């Protein structure tokens, strides 16, 4: 709700003025970059945590509770305008990002502490992504009808958005408790390290060349992915001309992505990752091309493009998570020290950087294309529509293609190499025991 719809809430629900929107766009960009740079530091903190509940769960709980409170505040009407609203927004948004970091890093850092088997990791990662996608697409599909219904009951659209934020927070806390209660980390893997200092942070990251390759490739992909998804509701309101169709479109995409995530483990057993990655990138490329040229008087071609995009993106997201996860053992193999959380902290770092760039692109495009002052699709000029389509489709496609080329030329941790590394690590541990 925050990543994809906070900007829409600001521009189309509470209607902040253009000057404030420029400031808020800059604040969101700076705050997310600042927060993203804190992610590896949080990774060090989690890696150094020792408690009877493990090193991940305390931060999952603290982050979830604090981020929940701040999420509600982001969608609360304090009656402020102008500089007062901008200042309060800046404080709440920055705090939200920091608290979300506590939860996000510790949550995903659990993955390499659950198994060293690549196929098992793919199954766990796919299940996690399926659940994340269910949550995401429930918001995407329901946000318009639910906020309108709640707004009608409570007296204003803003109150409808506020009520939905409360509902989502309650659901999030309930489902986070499943991880807190039901998931058990492998203490032999997660607690075998000595203390990692902040001074060693850069060494852990930059000393792991495969982590860097995966991170750069994933960052470019996420910039493209987040930029496209950030424009979804704007596209249906100002290009297609019927924002109500966005809900139907979202349901189709949600089913497509969840289906793709469900079948990925089976495909992973049959095909090599590099082949699946190439196939997924071709699907995404075809989807963007069809989307750009799709007529806006029918949903047929837009729907086909969306299915291709989200099936391909689902495959890519799982594989990139696996690339980061496998680089934990690679880093341990090179340096002799295992850093789950520092390594996996790059995933939220990348997601936030992608979201930050996407927010900047979205905010600027909303103003420059004329969407900020337009009431309906009829108010948009042909130049404004072209600006929107370039920002939503052309720029993201370029980022995703470059991401694929970097992976193809620099990433070496295929199935054979990873098996060799895990075998050597196990031999070292057995030698140390003897």
Question: What does this protein look like?
Answer:
The protein is mainly alpha-helical and 434 residues long. It has one domain (2-183, 201-421): MFS general substrate transporter like domains (Growth Hormone, Chain: A, Up-down Bundle). The protein is 80% helix and 0% strand. The protein contains 17 helices and no strands. The protein has helices at 2-13, 18-47, 57-74, 82-109, 118-154, 157-182, 187-190, 201-206, 209-230, 232-238, 245-270, 273-293, 300-335, 340-344, 346-368, 382-410, 415-433. Helix 9 packs antiparallel against helix 13 (300-335) and helix 9 (209-230) runs antiparallel to helix 16 (382-410). The chain is globular, with a radius of gyration of 22 Å. 46% of the residues are buried. The mean pLDDT is 86.
Set out the fold topology.
Elements: H1 2-13, H2 18-47, H3 57-74, H4 82-109, H5 118-154, H6 157-182, H7 187-190, H8 201-206, H9 209-230, H10 232-238, H11 245-270, H12 273-293, H13 300-335, H14 340-344, H15 346-368, H16 382-410, H17 415-433
Oligomerization state: single chain
Distance between the termini: 53 Å
The radius of gyration is 22 Å
The dominant shape is globular
CATH architecture: Up-down Bundle
| CATH level-1 class | Mainly Alpha
Query: What is the domain total for the residues?
Result: 1
CATH superfamily: MFS general substrate transporter like domains
Mean pLDDT: 86
Proportion in helices: over 70%
Q: Beta-strand percentage? A: under 5%
